[in-house]
Specification:
The structure holds three protein chains of three kinds. The longest helix of chain A has 17 residues, at 160-176. In chain A, strand 8 and strand 9 (204-208) form a beta hairpin. Chain A has six helices and nine strands. Chain A is an alpha/beta fold. In chain A, strands 5-6-7-3-8-9 form a six-stranded mixed beta sheet, sandwiched between helices. Chain A has a three-stranded antiparallel beta sheet with strand order 2-1-4, with helices on one face. Chain B has six helices and no strands. Classes of the chains: A alpha/beta, B mainly alpha, C mainly alpha. The B-C interface holds B 66, 118, 121-122, 124-126, 128-129, 132, 134-135, 137-138, 141-142, 144-146, 148-150, 152-153, 156-157, 159-161, 163-164 and C 146, 149-150, 153, 157, 163, 166-167, 169-171, 173-175, 177-178, 195, 198-199, 202, 205-206, 209-210, 213, 217, 220-221, 223, 225-226.
Chain lengths: 213, 241, 226
């Protein structure tokens, strides 16, 4: 473990919004084959930390080092990143082609299969329920066989079967050696699968013990 | 620091403008054809000059803002755009009066006039963009981009308007047929005087914006502190019971 | 970069043409403009070629604003913008892809405006129509480059159509002057062609400035900051 390089590392990271400090002195490392839960109150900056990890915004101080190519980083937020006007399959084909994935059509069929959306492949994403849309979002994430998975409250509004599927997908990704950072509002439930718990509180990040279940 | 610079510049501006008034009305001869109205030229020329310089300054400040990610360059660019707009508006007004007298129309499709008007429109759009509520850093980069692109457009506007049609008097033309000595000296003195006026206005506005930004941050800190005070929370939020 | 740009362009065209998102609005607005301008004519009058050319390009400019607003709004419904930013390709590929898509849509719209100009504004094709065609090609390229750069700035703002038009139209002036002149050459029976090359040069200069500005400045307009 000691010799292993973390896939994602925060080194003394600080982020401000205008004049306001969101968090500072954030240090954390995510290793291959682990699931890390991230908790904190509303407005504590969980999503901002996610965006930093995804490289969508840059820190005001410190460094965020990602040792995974951007192409193998999967980011799933509350918003589904879908085009409501396009069919489910068209949505996935677009993301596959834009990311330069080899044999996009084959890969798309594969992920539709995994997420159980094969039968709805030719329906427009706009008519999907929240749960279906989030499954499609998960399918998009799987297109790139991500090594670093960033989940920003993905389970909100999902029914039991979709949740189970999400958990399965995440756990199998861990087996493959992916590092997962998972923002959760339901620590008790999600900690069954998790390895660590990080908490954003009073403008900095600390590690806490996982609640036993 | 900034405060004393403004004071010096404003003082110089006031003094030199006073001297210029004497030069304009007492020393420089009256133009034979145009008469007294020609005196407006001594205002029109410096206004147009420093208006353009102001937009160039804004463009440079915007470039710095994008490169260095520093809010103060954005504020400087904003002040330069506003000062430039003031000068540009006055250029258009004085130019219109001049045009009415010498060509009989308030407005004509002349390259310089048109360029000034298009500049005015471009930077009015930029100011409209600035007045829209959005996060500061996003606003800063958007306004910077528009300011830069707007200035890049200026030579094209000028060239295209010249190709369209032109009747502007070429004042300092290479053939030397333009102004007589006393008029030229007066014009140059006015350009110099207006430099100080322009600089003072620019710096005053810049200082205002800096102070207002600082005020905002102080208010924010106060609010933030007030928010922080009630009851330090129990340390472990999610520990098992 | 090209792979991503082509994918984005295809996706946008698919969305606009097969799923009919908002294209009709842009077309109708342009057509209405051309038609309403014909009200300025008395019975039997023929509009001067230059005025007709100006109308045509004004319709195109409004169409451009609507088209680029539409193209950039597509990403905002479900924040797909963040997904685009995370693609393993430079951000500029978004600019390029949207510009290409916008240019195709604009050209398609102009195919409708051209007959409208002949029908409603009573124009006849002249001998030098190739100049007009060159003007349309160069003009569309410039409109696509500038529209794609600035279309991104009004994303997520209320009143974004009007915001985009007040920022974009003054910048477009030199291009509009050039292409209006070029278009009028094609409609006139006996045009004065001595400046034609200079007009083309000016329009090409506009295109290159905005292509360059788009490549350099786009990342500042389109990013993950909200």
């Amino acid at each position: 473990m000691a010799a292993q390089q973390p896939l994602l590392e925060f080194q003394d990271v600080a982020k401000t919004y205008g004049q306001r400090i969101i968090f500072r002195h954030v240090n954390a490392a995510l290793f291959s084959g682990s699931i890390t839960l991230l908790a904190g109150d509303n407005g504590s900056g969980k999503s901002t930390l996610m965006r930093l990890a995804a490289g969508l915004t840059s820190p005001d101080m410190g460094r965020v080092s990602r040792r995974v190519p951007l192409a193998r980083t999967g980011y799933m937020a509350h918003a589904t990143f879908l085009y409501p006007g396009l069919e489910a399959r068209e949505n996935l084909l677009f993301w596959a082609k834009a990311s330069g994935i080899a044999e996009p059509a084959k890969k798309v069929t594969e992920v539709l299969e995994i997420t159980g959306l094969s039968r709805s492949a030719f329906e427009k994403a706009g008519v999907f329920s929240r749960g279906m849309a989030q499954r499609l979002n998960l399918a998009r994430l799987l297109l790139s066989d991500p090594l670093l998975i960033l989940l920003d409250e993905p389970a909100t509004g999902l029914d039991v079967s979709s949740r189970t599927m999400l958990e399965e997908v995440v756990c199998s990704a861990r087996k493959r050696g992916a590092a997962v950072l998972w923002i959760s509002h339901n620590i008790k439930e999600d900690s069954r699968h998790a390895d660590r718990l990080l908490v954003l509180n009073s403008h900095t990040l600390g590690e806490e013990e996982l609640p036993s279940c | 620091m900034l405060h004393s610079k403004i004071a010096i510049s404003a003082l110089l501006g006031g003094l030199s403008l006073a001297i210029c008034q004497w030069l304009v009305f007492a020393w420089a001869p009256e133009e034979k054809v145009m008469g007294l109205v020609q005196k407006i030229f001594y205002m029109h020329l410096p206004l147009a000059w420093w208006g353009l310089v102001s937009f160039a300054t804004a463009c440079a400040a915007s470039l710095l803002c994008l490169i260095r990610h520093d809010r103060k360059y954005d504020l400087f660019s904003a002040s330069a755009v506003e000062t430039g707009m003031l000068f540009c508006t006055l250029t258009l007004v004085t130019g219109s009066i001049w045009g009415r007298h010498s060509w009989g129309v308030w407005w004509t499709w002349d390259p310089r006039l048109t360029t000034a008007l298009i500049l005015w429109f471009i930077y009015a759009g930029c100011m409209a963009l600035r007045s829209i509520p959005m996060p500061e850093h996003r606003k800063a980069s958007l306004c910077s981009v528009v300011t830069i692109v707007g200035f890049l457009d200026v030579p094209l506007v000028f060239l295209s308007a010249r190709l369209w049609r032109s009747i502007h008097p070429s004042v300092f033309a290479a053939n030397g047929g333009g102004l007589d000595m006393q008029m030229a000296v007066t014009a140059i003195a006015c350009v110099a005087a207006f430099f100080f006026i322009w600089l003072s206005l620019l710096l005053i506005r810049y200082r205002q914006l800096l102070l207002s930004a600082r005020l905002d941050s102080i208010i924010f800190e106060q609010l933030f502190k007030a928010e922080q005070e009630p009851a330090p929370k129990t340390k472990k939020l999610y520990a098992s019971e | 970069m090209l792979t991503a740009a082509i994918a984005i362009c295809k996706k946008d065209l698919l969305m606009v043409f097969t799923h009919g998102a908002g294209l009709a609005q842009a077309l109708l607005l342009g057509l209405l403009l051309v038609f309403l301008f014909s009200l300025s004519l008395n019975a039997g009058d023929r509009l001067s070629p230059q005025a007709a050319a100006a109308m045509f390009w004004l319709a195109s400019a409004f169409c451009q604003v609507l088209v680029f607003n539409m193209l950039y709004a597509a990403e905002e419904a479900e924040k797909a913008r963040l997904g685009l930013l995370m693609l393993p390709a430079p951000v500029q590929s978004v600019w390029l892809g949207k510009a290409a898509a916008g240019m195709v849509i604009l050209a398609a719209a102009q195919c409708v405006f051209i007959p409208a100009v002949f029908v409603f504004l009573g124009q006849k094709m002249g001998e030098f129509w190739t100049l007009s065609l060159a003007g349309i090609l160069i003009g569309d390229l410039g409109m696509a480059a500038s529209g794609s750069l600035l279309g991104a700035l009004s994303v997520g703002q209320s009143g974004r159509e009007s915001l985009l038009s007040i920022v974009l139209f003054p910048l477009l002036t030199p291009l509009l002057l050039s292409v209006v002149k070029l278009a009028s050459f094609g409609l006139e029976a006996d045009p004065m062609l001595e400046n034609a090359l200079r007009w083309i040069g000016l329009a090409v200069a506009f295109d290159s400035i905005f292509l360059g500005a788009g490549l350099v400045l786009f990342p500042f307009v389109y990013n993950g900051e909200d």
